[in-house]
Design brief:
Blueprint (H helix, E strand, L loop, with lengths): L12 H4 L3 E3 L2 E2 L12 E9 L3 E4 L5 E4 L2 E9 L4 H10 L8 H5 L4 E8 L6 H9 L4 E2 L20 E4 L5 H11 L7 E4 H6 L3
Antiparallel strand pairs: 1-2, 3-6, 3-7, 4-5, 6-9, 7-10, 8-9
Helix pairs in contact: 4-5
């Protein structure tokens, strides 16, 4: 894979302390399910009941139960592994919009791509046009989106959610040289398996 650090790069137990998929599921201290590569990721989130959620400067929002997806990019130190690990954690002082949502949503899976090109905008545009999709919180994780864009948010609500095969098929039509998109479910994240 392009941009992946050599095998054996793992986060330390100290770096992993406090990481949760939800309040009852902790991650393995040998968390190697995600690569240390630059790329784009999508978190599948589940909210089981209607909730009211304060999301930083975006204010208070009513969120329906169902399947959500958040699209982000990871081009900083530690790449996909570091960014997703951050999102799996709980924080007393949230940094990003998604950190606020983590109190009410469970991460059920992660899709990622170690594509050296920034694909967050492409993925978000494709999801914004997906049948049965809404963007429930305008501005969520989308400070880089232009006014008037079809993408008003990087948080999407689905009925039903797309399959990886269907999504990747659409991605390939728009970006034929796009790297593979890999899916990891919550059970594999908990066990630290690729």
């Amino acid at each position: 894979m392009h941009g992946v650090d050599p095998p054996g790069d793992t986060l330390t137990t100290d770096q992993l302390s406090g990481l949760f998929l939800n309040r009852s599921m902790t991650l393995s201290s040998s968390f190697t399910a995600l690569p240390v590569c630059r790329g784009t990721y999508l978190l599948h989130l589940r909210i089981t009941t209607a909730v009211t959620c304060h999301i930083g400067a975006l204010g208070v929002w009513q969120l329906a139960p169902g399947d959500y997806a958040y699209v982000g990019s990871a081009f900083g130190p530690g790449g996909v592994r570091a960014r997703v690990s951050h999102h799996l954690a709980s924080y007393a002082r949230p940094r990003w919009h998604l950190d606020y949502l983590r109190d009410v949503a469970t991460i059920s899976a992660v899709w990622y791509s170690c594509d050296p090109r920034r694909r967050e905008a492409l993925w978000s545009r494709l999801l914004a046009g997906w049948p049965g999709v809404t963007q429930p919180v305008p501005g969520f994780g989308a400070s880089d989106c232009k006014a008037g864009s079809v993408v008003q948010s990087h948080l999407f609500w689905f009925d039903p959610p797309p399959s990886l095969a269907a999504f990747y098929g659409v991605v390939q039509k728009r970006a034929p040289r796009h790297a593979a998109i890999v899916a990891i479910d919550a059970a594999r994240l908990r066990q630290g398996r690729p």
